[in-house]
Amino acid sequence: MSEPLEPARGRRAFFQQTLALATAFGATAACSRRTAGEKVGAEALPATEPPKQTVAAASGPRVGFAVVGLGKFATEQILPAFAACTRAKLVGLVSGTPDKAKRIAEQYGVEAKNVYDYKSFDRIRDNAAIDVVYVILPNSLHAEYSERGARAGKHVLCEKPMAITAKECEGMIRASKTAGKKLMIGYRAQFEPNNLRAIELVKRGEIGKVKTIIADHGRILRPEEPSDSWRAKRALAGGGSLMDIGIYSLQAARYITGEEPLEVSARTFSTPGDPRFAEIEETVAFSLAFPSGVLANCTSSYGHAEGKRYRVFGDKGYLDLDPATAYEGNVLRASKGGKPAELIEVPHGNQFAAEMDHLAECIQSGKEPKTPGEEGLRDVRIMEAIYAAAREHRPVRLGGDTQHG
Ligand code: NDP
User: Fold this and answer.
1) How far apart are CA 143 and CA 151, in angstroms?
2) Interatomic CA distance for residues 268 and 254, integer angstroms
3) DSSP class per residue in 52-113
4) pLDDT digits (tens, 9 = 90+) for 136-161
């Protein structure tokens, strides 16, 4: 059983220790915030100075990014995030919708000569201002545009899921290696301060030995909206809620444990007669067994109201992130010794800017990205195993040999 901490002082000491941890990767904004998270009475955590940024300030020319696909995520999250970058800058756009591309180019000051469509995309090889192509297209187009980007001599940042099959992922890795260019997958949660703090707390043993993890991601799929219409089509999405948001549950289980699962079991369910789920699955429940004995129970669904959370149970306490993977306003709480969970304040950081600056820094310094193509491939392999386990009603064994983090 967990040891009781001295009231107030002991608990505060535990949390103050955790507050001293620096954000592991470059969060660019630096304002302390109080989240919407409920605090526990008088023992709420004190506000602290934000930790110093760990990414060195940019010096020299910035790395030029071209964003490929100007949809909801690109226009609402990624393009605005360049303003918070210190190493990456937006220099190019690729779009199949000329009016939109023109308007966005004007809005962000992108030169007309750096705006491409999908036919002219390969000419990007002649454009020295563009170092990186950031692929933000429907899932089934990731492989083609990442490979074409690499063949054009560019580094590639590709959104999750990396591709719709492991074979495609392998082709992408090969193409980037052949070109001698970097390939990174856009796993923003691995650059998000609350998730980084949770990883650090687990590593430090603050909740003792981790035993179980639960991780759930869900939202209502609305194919009448443009950004969801392709998500209901297998040919473009590759799968349903698992490929789109279940991947966050899977990622969390992997980056919290720092291990690769040995075995998966799974079930899927799609409401009979619901046309949204004619081609893709609605809900998936999957379990992962890790080498250390940690068991993770994860879900994803396109059929329930929005939720994105995980909880890590150790033998001394638990960590709770709810929301865990929102664009803004994630909330981390911790409980120790059976006491109610308390808010851990984590200085705000722009996860999108941190992610893009990380790739830029890797390019400038010759380092490997933290979330390379191999990381995306691992998830796609595991998701293939999850689908196989659900289809065949049996546990599926995996390699489980690759430590990370
Ligand atoms: P959208 O549908 O909003 O955007 C996709 C864009 O791709 C379109 O607007 C269009 O841009 C372009 N496109 C090219 N070919 C097609 C096609 N055949 N059908 C539809 N669009 C096409 O989707 P999202 O922005 O929501 O998602 C894009 C990618 O980003 C996905 O892989 C998704 O998983 C990922 N994503 C990641 C998130 C994260 O938090 N990391 C969050 C949300 C999405 P244009 O008109 O300019 O050609």
Assistant:
1) 12
2) 21
3) PPSSPPP-SSPEEEEEE--SHHIIIIIHHHGGG-SSEEEEEEE-S-HHHHHHHHHHHT--GG
4) 999 999 999 999 999 999 999 999 99
CB 114 within 8 A of CB 90: no
Looking up tokens 């851990």 gives: 344
* End-to-end Cα spacing for the chain: 28
Is 327 a residue of the active site?
Answer: no
Q: Of ligand 1's atoms, which has the minimum distance to the CA of residue 325? A: 40
Burial readout 70-98 (b: 16 or more C-beta within 10 A, e: otherwise): bbebbbebbbebbebbbbbbbbbbbbeee
| In 173-331, beta strands by DSSP E | 183-185, 210-218, 263-269, 283-289, 295-301, 307-314, 317-321
Helix 193-203 × helix 9-19 angle, to 10°: 120
- C-alpha distances out from residue 194 to 158, 260, 310, Å: 23, 22, 12
387 tagged catalytic: no
Q: Is the peptide bond before 323 cis (omega within 30 degrees of 0)?
A: yes
- The single residue of 116, 248, 302, 310 carrying the catalytic annotation is 248
Whether 85 has a pLDDT exceeding 50, the answer reads yes
